[in-house]
Fold this protein.
Amino acid sequence: MGGQSSTPQTQTTSTQLSPEQRQLMQLAMPGVTQFAASTPQRYGGTTISGFDPSQVAGQTGALDTAGGQRTLGQAGANTTASWLSPNALDVQNNPALQGQIGAATRPITESLMNVALPGIRDSAERTGNFGSSRQGIAEGLAVGKAASAVGDATSNIVNNQYNTNVATQLKALGLLPQTTANMLAGDQTTSAVGDVRQALSQAQLGEQVGNFNYDQMAPFLQSKEIMSLLTGLPGGSTTSTASTPQRNPVTGALGGAASGAAMGSFLGPVGMAGGAGLGALLSFL
């Protein structure tokens, strides 16, 4: 049972760089030192390009045209609404209808009055049947035939006009989506110009925010880059040195004597004395 001092055990660890690491460190340190000595500078000017003169001219022209687009769009909408109304099917709303009917029936009536009836009367006079029932029947047949022709011509004109109105109404209905889009064309043009301008303003605001954040983060980013350079080097060797506590010779001798005396007690008093002396001597070895 040897005694020990109260000095605690200590351990020292040191890292030894290899020749290659020392070479890399010597190459990197000047740049690291220069980088650490100053804060990185930010680009002094704006990084966003402004509008090209052609873009500005196009935007101005688009805004000037927007008013006309609204007017045309509204006019188209009014026309479409008119053709989609029930009145569009009424042929009497066509101011040219009566003229068309008159042009179609005039030759019929003129032929009746100038050709058919005079011919019947002339024939009746020549045959001595003027004023007779035969003349009346002949004139009635001629008038009826002319009336039938006038009715057919009028019916065809009215029917064609009705069909035209129906077709026009269907076309107007088919063009309704395009007409609606045309009504919005002016507003869409104005909005498109506003979108472009707002995008530029947003980009400029984003630049200001990015610059502010960069200024706040610059010290941290600088330290981070320095640490990445250091930790990125190849690893070196690590040496650990440990120191053990020193033995106390006096307490060791006392402990050895006590142990020897305990073993010599089996041999009596003499054995105890001899064992103690032997134990004390061994503690110095």
The longest helix spans residues 176-231. The longest strand covers residues 10-16. The radius of gyration is 60 Å. The CA atoms of residues 130 and 136 lie 9 Å apart.
